[in-house]
Design goal:
Its cofactor is [4Fe-4S] cluster. One of its GO terms (biological process) is mismatch repair. The protein is built from 14 helices and 9 strands. By secondary structure, it is an alpha+beta fold. Helix 1 (2-15) packs across helix 11 and helix 9 crosses helix 11. The radius of gyration is 24 Å and the shape is globular. The mean pLDDT is 94.
């Protein structure tokens, strides 16, 4: 087991990427990077990390910001519950912990939005606590190296892989081991077409020996994708446009959007025209083509219905066009505004 850790840490020292959150033991910065990199590629998350560190150098600075400021800075990253939890946790640390970041795994995991992986990352990277990380990279490496067929999304699988990961982490350098196995999974033991001929573990990798690399890891559940149909009414008059805040517990909560009609199935242009004639006595100026937006568990098909008048009952929703730059918007809306030149 020691040989496995020695080999991947030796590989890491030669091949690691120079990433800013690796040059610090500040738990705030490590936490920030981990939250940003959830569901986000490193190349995309880098600029967001640097922006947040510049705007909020400490956890107290983040706590003092408004939620809208934080959501604005997060715009484009998606999974906005991460940003809301980030802000709520910063306020908790500032108000309940005296501005000092918790220093143990057992304390860190109690923070809102922090799961076992993130808590282990912060505890090991910042405080050298012996806690093994287990995420997609680790599942993939261990399932291949030891040729494990237990589904990683099963209760027994999660327990088996955690116990195995715990048995591999050295007590003297848990931070280096965790960084190494994560980087190895990201750069070498990749999900598709890993370069096994160039891997220093190829003489002991059981999946390579047994020719099961492409079959590892095993999952027993398939993610069901939900189809949704969004129809956004773009009511514009002079230099004003109508927007509303999403308050329901759903995607993009607390972000702003155009007045929305959601349908269970696709609507034709004739059906959309009839709907708006009936509800606000207006005929669309034009209706955009379909815009596709893919989330992890949802496929959203959108059309934008433009009007050159704002109905009287919607005047309270009207803002200046220039104010669109100052409010947090879903990436789908933001991209359409850019493309339409609004």
């Amino acid at each position: 087991m020691t040989m496995f850790s020695d080999q991947i840490t030796a590989w890491y020292k030669i091949n690691k990427r120079n990433l800013p959150w690796r040059d610090t033991t500040d738990p705030y910065k490590i936490w920030l990077s981990e939250i940003i990199l959830q569901q986000t590629r490193v190349d995309q998350g880098m600029n967001y990390y640097l922006k947040f560190i510049e705007h909020y150098p400490t956890v107290n600075d983040l706590a003092a910001a408004s939620e809208q400021e934080v959501l604005n800075d997060w715009q484009g990253l998606g999974y906005y519950s991460r940003a809301r939890n980030l802000h709520a946790t910063a306020k908790f640390i500032a108000q309940e912990c005296g501005g000092k970041f918790p220093a143990t795994y057992d304390e860190i995991i109690r923070l809102k939005g922090v799961g076992p992986y993130t808590a282990a990352a912060i505890a090991s990277f910042a405080f050298k606590e012996v806690k093994a990380l287990v995420d997609g990279n680790v599942y993939r490496i261990l399932s291949r190296y030891f040729d494990i067929s237990t589904p990683i999304d099963s209760t027994s699988g999660k327990k088996e892989f955690q116990l195995l990961a715990d048995s591999l982490i050295p007590a003297d350098q848990p931070d280096l081991h965790n960084q190494a196995i994560m980087e190895f999974g990201s750069q070498q033991c990749t999900p598709v077409n890993p370069d096994c001929t160039a891997c220093m573990l190829n003489d002991s990798c059981q999946a390579l020996i047994n020719q099961t690399v492409s079959a590892r890891p095993v999952k027993e559940k398939k993610t069901k994708v939900r189809n949704r149909y969004f129809y956004y009414a773009v009511f514009m008059e002079k230099n004003q446009i109508c927007v509303q805040k999403r308050t329901q517990a759903d995607i993009w909560q607390h972000l702003f959007e155009f007045p929305l009609l959601e349908a269970a199935s696709p609507l034709t242009e004739q059906e959309l025209t009839a709907h708006y004639l009936e509800t606000c006595q207006l005929t669309p100026e034009y209706i955009s083509g379909e815009v596709k937006h893919i989330l992890s568990h949802q496929r959203i098909t959108t059309r934008f219905i433009h009007f050159s008048h704002i109905p009287e009952e919607l005047h309270p929703l009207a803002i200046e066009l220039t104010a669109l730059e100052k409010i947090p918007l879903p990436r789908l809306i933001h991209r359409y505004i850019e493309d339409a030149g609004l």
